[in-house]
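Pilot study result, target chain (108 residues):
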Amino acid sequence: MNDRMTAPWAEYALARFPEDPRDQLRAWDAADTYLLRHLAESGTPLSGSVVVVGDRWGALATALSAHRPTQITDSFLAQEATRANLARNGVEATAVRLLTTQDTPPDR
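Predicted structure:
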């Protein structure tokens, strides 16, 4: 099973949470890679508030961690997956701000 997602600027080791070695499903999908490729090719500035919504396994938050994104989710497992994938890639947990849908979103 390939657990490495290739983004335009790096490759990331990702896993679903909780991790199960028998699981053959990836922690990202074509929409994740398409969005990351679009951001890179379009030159979209990521200097403002970067907010990630619907990132079930933390693939987008991990790939965008250099831009200090905020992830908004109603899933405890999504937050745990994001934490685990950040650690798996040597990224500090504080690089991504984790919010629930009950928290106030960041300012623009």
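One observation from the pilot: The mean pLDDT is 96. A full batch analysis is planned for the follow-on phase.
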